[in-house]
Design a protein that fits this description.
Helices cover about 0% and strands about 50% of the residues. It has strands spanning about 1-5, 10-15, 20-25, 40-45, 45-50, 60. The termini are close together.
Length: about 70
């Protein structure tokens, strides 16, 4: 899961497997009541999160917990 929080001024990524596990949280100036564009790339065990049309990912992680699945 990827989420943004205006209250906490952050973007985060996590997973749920009988419990919530936050994988990474990055400070980001999120404004409430403003649209933000999120793009998530998943290639093998590499996950990249882009926000607001930035060319470089804000978050990059590796997690091989769920090698198969659907979106």
């Amino acid at each position: 899961y990827v989420g943004i929080s205006a209250a906490n001024q952050c973007v985060l990524i996590g997973k749920a497997d009988n419990q919530w596990t936050e994988l990474k949280r990055i400070d980001y100036p999120v404004q409430a009541e403003q649209f933000h564009r999120l793009k998530i790339e998943a290639v093998a065990d590499e996950l990249s999160v882009y926000i607001d049309d930035h060319q470089q990912p804000l978050i990059e992680i590796r997690d091989d917990s769920f090698r198969d699945g659907v979106i």
